[in-house]
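Appendix C. Worked example: Fumarylacetoacetate hydrolase family protein
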Amino acid sequence: MRIANLSGRLVIVSGDAAFDVALLSAGRFSSNPQAVFDRWAEFVEWGKEADLAAGAGGVIDSADLESPAPLPRQIFAIGLNYHDHASEVGLVASEVPVVFTKFASSIAGPLADIPHPGGDLDWEVELVVVMGAEARNVTPDDAWNYVAGLTVGQDISERVTQHAGVTPQFSLGKSFAAFSPMGPWIVTPDEFPDPDDLALSTVVNGETLQDGRTSDMVASVSMLIAALSKILVLLPGDVIFTGTPAGVGLGMKPPRYLTVGDELVTRIEGIGEMRNRIVGAV
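Step 2, the predicted output written as C-alpha cells:
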C-alpha cells in the first residue's frame, strides 16, 4: 500500500490515482495524514479490504503532494552510516549509531522549493523510515513489524553552520527551512522484494552525484530501531533518516555545493522521486 498527503488530506495511492481515506472510510479514519499512524494496524487491516473501485479516485496532481509524515513527534537522523561516506569526509563509520535530530519546522514536501540561506549547501539522499507502532526495547528480528513504511528523504545540510562552534552543530545546520523534504509517498514494507536493499541516488542538474544501495548501511533499519528503542520510546509517526552514501559535496575535491537555480532530484528504488529547486533566501 502507498499513502500520501495530498493538499493536507490522507490518500491511498493506486497507480496514478488518489483515493481520499476519510471519504472512502465514511469517516472511520481522519483526513489528517499524521493521525493515521496512531491507528496504523487498524488502518492496514481496513486497507486490505477497502474497495477502491467504490471510491471517487482522482488523478494525482504531483504539485499538490506534501510531506507524507508532516508532523512527527520525533525526528531522528543517523550520521556516518555508510563506510564510503564516512571515508570521503575523513572520518570512520561507527558500529554505534551517530544520532542527531532535524527540527520539525524544516519538513517540506517532495516538490518544495528549498531557500538557500547562504553558506555551503549540501545534499544527502536518505531512506526515511516511518514508524507505525510504539517501540520500546525492540529486537532487530522484530523491528520491521513496527514500521509503517518507507519514503524518500533529503538531509539538506548547511556546512558552515554545521561545523561552527566548539562541537559540530548537526541539528541546527540541517534544520533551516525546507531542509527535510520527504515524499512523494510512504510505501509499506510488504511492497518491496527486499526492503533492506534499495538503490538510492541524488542527481543535480542532470548529473548523478550519489549512487548507492541501502544494503551498504553500517547499521540496518532493524539495527537502528533496536538501538534507539533501547534508550527511548519510538512513537507512531516518528521518522528516522537513516544516513547517506558517498557523493556529498563536502567530500569532493574541491568541495562542491548547491547554488540558487539548481534542481535536486532524489530517487529511491520502489518508492519514487522528489524534485526540489534551490531558490533565493526568503
